[in-house]
Design brief:
Elements: E1 5-9, H1 13-24, E2 28-32, H2 38-43, E3 47-48, H3 51-57, E4 60-63, H4 77-81, E5 88-91, H5 100-108, E6 114-117, E7 137-139, H6 148-167
Parallel strand pairs: 1-2, 1-4, 2-3, 4-5, 5-6, 6-7
Length: 169
């Protein structure tokens, strides 16, 4: 892995943790986000680069940004076209951040190595969706919430809501 470059789009809390993991594997870590400073990137163990450079240099490009008006279709046809032919795009952020039509076309033509995804633009993913049949797509269920602290929060909130409702009857 030490000869590979990990590109991170969105170097916030999760992206920063991913940067540390990439560094632990000896990867070169580069990052871009709309408000990223060189200092913040360095603190996370990454080098800040332009968005274009991120897509051009990354062997593995992982997306960790929130969905907003600014990030909807942030990964468009032009950015996907910059990717290396053996690069993998990994998306654990909300679906509409990536131009799905352009990505499906790119994957079908095998112009990038592959795509790993667990959050889709349309959920549940329709049975006839190309992500279900393309050989260079790794699609998994959206299970990022499966962590002990989140279970404590979900169950605690649920129990408080039920108790509050019962107290009102």
């Amino acid at each position: 892995m030490s000869d590979r470059t990990l590109g991170i789009l969105g170097l916030g809390r999760i992206g920063g943790a991913v940067a540390r993991i990439g560094s632990a594997f000896g990867m070169k870590v580069i990052a871009w986000s709309q408000n990223l400073t060189a200092q913040h990137a360095a603190e996370a163990g990454a080098t800040a680069v332009s968005k274009e450079e991120l897509f051009t240099r990354a062997d593995i490009l992982t997306i960790h940004t929130l969905l907003s008006r600014r990030t909807r279709r942030l990964v468009d046809e032009a950015m996907i076209a910059r990717m290396k032919s053996d690069a993998w795009l990994i998306k654990t952020s909300r679906g509409p951040i990536v131009d799905e039509g352009a990505l499906i076309e790119t994957l079908g033509a095998q112009r990038i190595g592959g795509y790993a995804v667990h959050v889709f633009a349309e959920e549940p993913l329709p049975l006839a969706h190309p992500f279900r049949t393309l050989p260079n797509v790794l699609a998994t269920p959206h299970i990022g919430y499966v962590a002990e602290d989140l279970y404590r929060t979900f169950y605690g909130d649920s129990a408080r809501a039920i108790a509050g409702w019962l107290g009102q009857t």
